[in-house]
Structures are given as structure tokens and as C-alpha cells.
Write a structure and sequence with these properties.
Elements (H helix, E strand, L loop, with lengths): L4 E5 L3 H9 L4 E5 L18 H11 L2 E6 L8 H13 L4 E4 L2 H9 L3 E4 L8 H7 L5 E3 L6 H13 L11 E8 L11 H6 L17 E4 L4 E4 L4 E5 L1 E3 L4 H6 L4 E4 L6 H20 L4 H11 L7 E2 L11 E2 L6 E13 L4 E6 L3 E3 L3 E6 L3 E6 L3 E3 L2 E3 L1 E3 L3 E5 L9 E7 L5
Parallel strand pairs: 1-2, 1-12, 2-3, 3-4, 4-5, 5-6, 6-7, 7-12, 11-13
Antiparallel strand pairs: 7-11, 8-9, 10-14, 15-16, 15-24, 16-23, 17-22, 18-19, 18-24, 20-21, 20-23
Helix pairs in contact: 1-9, 3-4, 9-10
Length: about 400
């Protein structure tokens, strides 16, 4: 069986490094404003494309540029410039929903992936887009049985893309789900003139609402639930069924989330995939991986539409079991002694604490503090305003940020 591809999100260079270090086979990212995470993610610039392509090529992973918003006439010159630059930079494919992007990428010989926003839900639509794309991201509203039938018919009818290979089917396995059909929402546009379909969602659904009975003026809060905001998708507990369905690409949502979120989710799904192919994917491992997934930002989990669940899986607040507290920044790394130096700008850190170090080159590193030196003397604690050194088996940079990881109950 051909091993499934694990596709991870990258909102910036820190997340890109985190995805690579955590076992991603490929990454996807956006540039400037023509992607569905234009305001919720840092995004890359046009000038970053060569560096992204260089990093991914060196690490042996594929990289995909998302140009998946709707496109207006005044955007056409921009999408051509972006597509040309992506092609020159060794970016492997463009993820698109607008036919203008699809046609231009196809014209210059750039591999195309059909975005979930095009709502592909049947085999005839797969046949149509096979003239332009090698990979199709199915609509998020399909069940696993529907997906299996589409994959079966691709193989039965030998439906191939421009490359001459059978069409690859991609689905989301983890992350945020939109209340609208595959993300086509107009709430933000109507309320704030900020279109979600242009990557500028203002997240109306992620807010609390009160019902008002107009006749009497009676008001009621909705049990502290966010009635338009679904729980996060999590498929780790039935990942074996997903792989057995025959899909080729497993996609993690999260370009707007933190680098440590990318690191943990990518690592967990990497382990789950490897467990499956090794023949030892079991409930004990699922329980362990689910616990790890809960340690980073989440709104609670459900399996989406894959198993045919009914609607009503609404979120409450972030249920992550750990939080990060900013401590300070990196100063220097002493390679021979394998020691990192930090300036502490907030809070305090003690021996035995778990710390997180993030940076555009460092990526995401989590370690336990085994010892601390302050003013060349051993110390059990370092506080705001002090400079300390901590033993580390990896290099840090002055651009790195230092955080302390704490259980959420420690903050109450």
C-alpha cells in the first residue's frame, strides 16, 4: 500500500520548521492576501517564496501555495506574478478554487490542487477537474462511505490528471471546521464588510450570542456555547478507516494557529500513520495521542461528517490542557558547552519546568529545565530582569522566544 501523505500547515517560518521537524511529508502556505487565511495568519511575502522552496527541497518535502480565494479582475496580474514566482522558486503546486487561477497555473505547467471551496462531492465533478488538476480536496461535508465510493470510481474508471497519474484525493483530518458549507460563509461580509471568501473572515461564529424575544424583551444566554462555532475536527480515533478508504493526502488545518500547535498535531498524526503501517495502531496509542492533541489549542473534538454524526457539536472555549506563558528571548548559544543564554523579561522559570523555544530557524522545541545558571552560579529559579543559561542540545538564536508551559489548572 502506498503510504499516505501527511500535509501540514505553515503560517510562518516557525511553523514551517515545526512541520518539517515533526514529520510532515508536505506543507501548504499562503502569500499576502489571496488565500483563505489572509488576516488570521502571518503569511509569507512574495520575496519569501525562493526561501520556502529552498528549505522544502533541502528537507525532501513538497510545498503547496494556497491561492484559494475568489479572484476579481484587478487581482489577475497579481495571481500571474505569484504563480510565475512560485514556479521559478520550485513550489510544487498551487491550491486553487477560482478558474482564473486554475487555468493560469495549468498554462504555465504548474501542478494544481482543487481546493475544498469548490465543493467537489461526486465522481462527475472529479472527472471535470481532472483535466486541470492532479489532486482534489473533497468537500468537508462528505461521509467516509461517500469518499470511499469516489476513490473506488477513480480507480475503476482510471481517471487521471494532467501528470498521467490517477487523481489523488485529499481530505482534512484535524483542525477548525466552518459552520458554512466548506467555508463559503457571508456573515462576516454582511456584518463588517469583510469577506471570508477573500480570506478576511472576522469570525462572527466564534463569538457568544444572546437570544432576544422581541415581544417581551426576554433575553437568554445559550448555555455558554458558541452556537455557530463547531468543535474542532479530530480523526485520530478512526484514522485506520480513513487510510483504508484509499485517499492519498491527509491534511491538517491550522495556518492561523501557533507553531507549537503545528508541531504537536503534525507529530501526533505522523505517529498514528506510522503505527498503522507498522500494524500496531490500537486504542492505547489513540488514547495517548488524543491526550497530546488536547494539550494545544482546541475547541473540543468531534469526527466531523465522516462517520455520519448529526449536527450540534458546538464549541465552548479553548479546552487545551496546557498554556504557554511568555518568559523572554534568546541571547546567545555556546556551541561547545551546549548552553543557551536567555534574558527573562516576564514571569519566572524554575528547575523542572517545561519550556518552549520558538523561532523562524529554530522552529519549535520543547524541553525540561534540568539546571539554571544565574551570574555564573547554579540557581533553582530565574526571575524577570535576570539573564540565565540553560543546557540545550540544539542551537538557539537571538530571534527566538522563550515560554513556560503550564497545565491550565495551574492558571486558575
Amino acid at each position: 500500500m502506498e503510504k499516505i501523505e501527511l500535509l501540514a500547515p505553515a503560517g510562518d517560518f516557525e511553523s514551517l520548521r515545526a512541520a518539517i521537524d515533526s514529520g510532515a511529508d508536505s506543507i501548504y502556505f499562503g502569500v499576502d492576501h489571496l488565500n483563505m487565511r489572509a488576516i488570521s495568519s502571518a503569511n509569507f511575502s512574495l520575496n519569501d517564496l525562493p526561501e520556502v522552496g529552498k528549505i522544502c527541497k533541502k528537507k525532501g518535502i513538497r510545498c503547496y501555495l494556497t491561492l484559494n480565494t475568489i479572484i476579481y479582475d484587478y487581482d489577475l496580474s497579481i495571481i500571474k506574478k505569484l504563480s510565475d514566482k512560485a514556479y521559478e522558486s520550485g513550489i510544487n503546486a498551487i491550491i486553487a478554487m477560482d478558474q482564473a487561477v486554475i487555468l493560469y497555473a495549468h498554462k504555465i505547467g504548474m501542478e494544481v490542487h482543487i481546493s475544498t471551496q469548490l465543493n467537489v462531492t461526486n465522481i462527475e465533478t472529479v472527472k471535470f477537474y481532472s483535466s486541470f488538476a492532479d489532486t482534489i480536496v473533497l468537500s468537508r461535508e462528505l461521509s467516509l462511505n461517500q469518499i470511499k465510493k469516489i476513490v473506488y470510481k477513480i480507480e475503476k474508471y482510471k481517471i487521471k490528471g494532467p501528470s498521467g497519474s490517477l487523481i489523488r484525493i485529499e481530505i482534512f483530518c484535524h483542525g477548525a471546521l466552518c459552520m458554512a458549507v466548506s467555508g463559503k460563509c457571508y456573515l462576516s461580509l454582511h456584518s463588517r464588510n469583510s469577506s471570508a471568501n477573500r480570506g478576511a473572515c472576522s469570525h462572527n461564529c466564534r463569538k457568544k450570542y444572546t437570544l432576544l424575544e422581541k415581544e417581551s424583551g426576554f433575553k437568554i444566554d445559550i448555555n455558554n456555547e458558541y452556537i455557530m462555532s463547531t468543535k474542532d475536527l479530530c480523526t485520530i480515533h478512526f484514522l485506520d478507516k480513513i487510510i483504508e478508504s484509499g485517499i492519498k493526502v491527509l491534511k491538517i488545518e491550522g495556518r492561523g494557529r501557533s507553531p507549537e500547535y503545528v508541531a504537536v498535531t503534525t507529530s501526533c498524526y505522523r505517529k498514528a500513520i506510522d503505527f498503522f503501517y507498522q500494524g500496531n495502531f490500537d486504542q492505547k496509542k489513540v488514547t495517548y495521542l488524543t491526550k497530546r492533541l488536547k494539550s494545544v489549542y482546541n475547541r473540543g473534538f468531534w469526527g466531523g461528517f465522516y462517520l455520519g454524526q448529526k449536527l450540534g457539536e458546538w464549541s465552548q472555549i479553548s479546552l487545551s490542557t496546557r498554556k504557554k506563558i511568555f518568559l523572554g528571548k534568546g541571547r546567545h548559544y555556546y556551541s561547545k558547552a551546549r548552553i543557551g543564554e536567555f534574558s527573562i523579561e516576564a514571569s519566572e522559570v524554575k528547575v523542572g519546568d517545561r519550556i518552549l523555544i520558538t523561532g523562524p530557524i529554530t522552529g519549535v522545541k520543547e524541553v525540561e529545565v534540568l539546571s539554571i545558571m544565574v551570574n555564573d552560579s547554579l540557581s533553582d529559579i530565574v526571575v524577570k530582569g535576570q539573564v540565565c543559561t540553560i543546557p540545550l542540545n540544539f542551537k538557539i538564536r537571538s530571534s527566538d522566544k522563550l515560554y513556560k508551559l503550564v497545565n491550565t489548572e495551574c492558571l486558575s
